[in-house]
Amino acid sequence: xxxxxxxxxxxxxxxxxxxxxxxxxxxxxxxxxxxxxxxxxxxxxxxxxxxxxxxxxxxxxxxxxxxxxxxxxxxxxxxxxxxxxxxxxxxxxxxxxxxxxxxxxxxxxxxxxxxxxxxxxxxxxxxxxxxxxxxxxxxxxxxxxxxxxxxxxxxxxxxxxxxxxxxxxxxxxxxxxxxxxxxxxxxxxx
Length: 190
Known about the structure:
By secondary structure, the protein is α+β, with helices and mostly antiparallel strands.
């Protein structure tokens, strides 16, 4: 039997750049964690592996479990909020820890417009292969450029190109409430 290696495993072995290797390992960790949620039923505003999760909470749990973001509970949201409002509340949560990118790589996020705003997301395995929590089907592997997803506007976001310095976090309001920003001798956030 011939064993094949994943492209990411080959890339990890081939690079001598420690930062690139660490990023590739983090991207693989995201995919591994997301895969561990497969077959979890879809359940609005929930985040319990094996019991229920929606697409937004899946992202929070996967990235937090990989140590890339702080776990948080988003503000309450009705299941059909995107049908009645143009408020990009879902996209604001995505942008808390990511920046928009032109092309998705493994471990990045794809976000689709449903209704009047962007309100559905998935983790990219290798575009167009994604893993997401889908109503009536739960967490599953899917193709992001097929079926109803192909008919919708899609954007890509990545945690790997975002600026997570303390200064950036303070500007974006992401420091923990009990954590005061560090100020240097010039009275600037360090």
